Amino acid sequence: MMNFECAFYGMRALLFGLPLAAISSWLIYKGMVVGGANNIDFVFPWGSIGISVFSVLFVVFVTMLYAISKIKRENIIDALRDDISCDLQILLLPAAEQFLNTSLLEQTDLDSLEHSQKNEG
Known about the structure:
The protein has about 120 residues and is mainly alpha-helical. The protein has helices at about 1-35, 45-75, 75-120.
């Protein structure tokens, strides 16, 4: 499943990247023609496109191998337990901060009230 997902990401990147590369190449050619290079012909850069396809697939493959090796070394139960505790911390942290801030404000209000009563009396 992980292999299929990584291959899917690589193909999706190529699906968007190859047309953009072809259009960019043609626009560079048109810019050169407008700039005064009238005696050159447009040649599609098949070699560069091939290197790009190979590089994308290679990077995806290496990333997949790294992820699979990391998953094999990690205990799934511990990872889920850590993930759940992290999620709980993320959910509970704002409430705890709000509670502490409210408690500090109430304590500050009480301290200022006591201080003003001492000054009046």
